[in-house]
Design a protein that fits this description.
This protein is an all-alpha fold. The protein has one domain (about 1-210): Up-down Bundle (Methane Monooxygenase Hydroxylase, Chain G, domain 1). The chain has six helices and no strands. This is UTRO protein.
């Protein structure tokens, strides 16, 4: 009777593993929304816990069959063979569910990381847009133009590492058919805004550099003229002080 019950327990265990495999490993999942992906992750976590909890039952079965084999070798030997099959199948099921759970957790982590990088780069784009707008109505002063140019250039020196991460993470998920529509839409919107603002910022940078160069050249010319007029003023003053007749002066002084 004990052998019959153990045989029944082995059969039930094998049936449960078959059902678990069909439910957790053979279903085709489509992750078209973050909610679907998150639910799948939580489901696989529960599946892993459920499968691992059966380890106690498997151990009890194993101990009982070993004990029976010492008392009734013939019955125990047959059950031991069935037990080995169940143990192999159980270990395989555990490994596969662990693997799928790990994969889904990695995918979810990848999605969260992508959102974080998008948030960082969106904040940078907002800052870039603000700096570009600030260069729209500048006073016609060299210091103001120079400060605006330096401020814009400091934002433009933003490293490209985050954009590289966005591209790689997005492509990884899209290649796996995970959230591909949502990610493609997000990346398209981000890239379009990035290209537009970057082009506008570089164009404004060039304009400010040219404006600054022109103002510096004008300032230099005014400085040279002012120095020349100062020299001339001092020379004319010396002529007047020395009461030199106008006709005795050089032509340019006359």
């Amino acid at each position: 009777e004990k052998a019959v019950n153990l045989k029944k327990d082995l059969a039930e265990m094998q049936e449960w593993m078959t059902q678990a495999e069909e439910e957790y490993l053979e279903k085709d999942f489509e992750y078209k929304s973050p909610e679907e992906l998150e639910n799948a992750v939580e489901e696989m976590k529960r599946a892993k816990e459920d499968v691992l909890q059966k380890e106690v039952r498997v151990k009890i079965l194993k101990d009982n069959i070993k004990m029976l084999a010492t008392k009734v070798p013939s019955s125990g030997q047959d059950l031991a063979t069935e037990l080995n099959v169940v143990l192999e199948n159980y270990q395989l099921l555990c490994n596969r569910i662990r693997g799928k759970c790990h994969t889904l957790e990695e995918v979810w982590s990848c999605w969260i990381e992508l959102l974080q990088y998008l948030d960082l780069e969106t904040a940078w784009l907002n800052s870039l847009e603000e700096r570009v707008q600030m260069t729209g109505n500048l006073p016609d002063k060299l210091d103001a133009v120079n400060d605006a140019l330096e401020s814009l250039e400091s934002v433009l020196r933003h490293p490209a590492d985050n954009r590289t991460q966005i591209r790689e993470l997005g492509q990884t998920l899209i290649d796996g058919g995970i959230l591909d529509d949502i990610i493609s839409e997000k990346l398209e919107a981000f890239n379009a805004r990035y290209e537009e603002l970057s082009h506008l910022a570089v164009s404004r940078q060039i304009t400010l550099e040219q404006q600054l160069q022109t103002m510096r050249e004008t300032d230099h010319m005014l400085q040279v003229l002012q120095e020349s007029l100062g020299d001339l003023d001092r020379q004319l003053t010396s002529y007047l002080t020395d009461r030199i007749d106008a006709f005795q002066m050089p032509q340019e002084a006359q």
